[in-house]
Amino acid sequence: MKKSVEILGLPIISITEGRELGMSKTLLIDAKNGTVAAITIEDEDWYRGVKLIPYESVIAIGDDAVTVTNSENILTLDDAGDYEQLLDDNIRIIGTKAITKSGSIQGKISELYIGDDGKIEKCEITAPDGTTSDVTADQISIFGKQVTVIDPNGEKKNEPVAAPAPAAAAPAKETPAPEAPAKEAVAAKEPAAPKAEVKPDLPKAAAEKPAAKPAPAPAAPKAPEKPAAPAPKPAPKADPKQAAADKATEERHRRFLLGKKATRTIKMDNGIVIVEEGQDITEEVLQKAKLANKFIELSMNVQ
């Protein structure tokens, strides 16, 4: 059994490739089943987005490293469809209020104890007076985003209470995604505008020159010269499929970041603050980060 603090910050080692794959960053909690579903990692390609290792792919968690079979065990956000809902839920447990069914606040969850199979065996509660106590998994009814509901009397876990969890697991955030390709398709057609280039004026100029021939001016023969500037070519059309894929990826990252908190202050190049450390990530913050080209930096500094 390991504390969460004994897992986070450890290097991830591939035992078949003999190399370090990154550093463990956070625990992805499956609140409904009371387990750790995966470990998110940070590596040298952090700017490409979130990566994680399913807990079942972990061979062992030692004092100095987390071992896995190879780098193929690492999933990107695009490959982690089964974990997308858990990323959206963003249940942390540590820091939540521990409250009994009768409505008495016992303190805050300050630590997790995790078994070899990823099951959360018990939680440590720190009371307002600084004293600590443990509650086992059987004494916990619900792991929530802000509150963990417990039964300090040691009664068996109340399974029916967990029924509301699926309702929270069905947000209607998926609907914006289909609209993205339509918008991109319209944008892709816009480069056709250069076809409206007014080219017929040049022949007119040439047609008017014959009227000047009766004039004895010696400069008249130079007028029929063809213009050297060719008509501008239409800009190449964007690939609608690629644009749609990029938009879908951006939408997944946006949903992943919403509701999280910044772990440090992010600023624009001119010094204007996008988000303060500890502030919630909102749509406004995401828009500022995107306009300032700080989206990737923001995504790697949230919790």
Notes on the structure:
The protein is α+β, with helices and mostly antiparallel strands. Among the domains are: 2-89, SH3 type barrels; 97-168, SH3 type barrels, CATH 2.30.30. The chain contains seven helices and 16 strands. The protein has helices at 84-89, 165-168, 176-189, 201-208, 240-257, 283-291, 295-299, and strands spanning 2-3, 11-14, 19-30, 35-42, 51-54, 58-61, 66-68, 75-76, 97-100, 105-114, 120-126, 132-136, 140-143, 147-150, 266-267, 273-275. The strands form three sheets. Strands 1, 9, 10, 11, 12, 13 and 14 form a seven-stranded mixed β-sheet that branches. Helix 3 runs antiparallel to helix 5 (240-257). The radius of gyration is 30 Å and the shape is globular.
List keywords for this structure.
globular; 21% helix; 7-stranded mixed beta sheet; 303 residues; alpha+beta; 7 helices
In short:
With 303 residues, the protein is an alpha+beta fold. It is 21% helix and 26% strand. A hairpin with a 4-residue loop joins β9 and β10.
- What is the CATH homologous superfamily assignment of the domain at 2-89? PRC-barrel domain
| CATH topology title of the domain at 2-89 | SH3 type barrels
The portion of residues assigned to helices is: 10-25%
Give the structural class.
Answer: alpha+beta
Radius of gyration based on Cα positions: 30 Å
- Record field, number of beta strands: 16
Which CATH architecture of the domain at 2-89 would you pick? Roll
Protein name: Photosystem reaction center subunit H
Biased composition (Basic and acidic residues): 196-211
InterPro entries: PRC-brl_dom, PRC_barrel-like_sf
Region (Disordered): 151-258
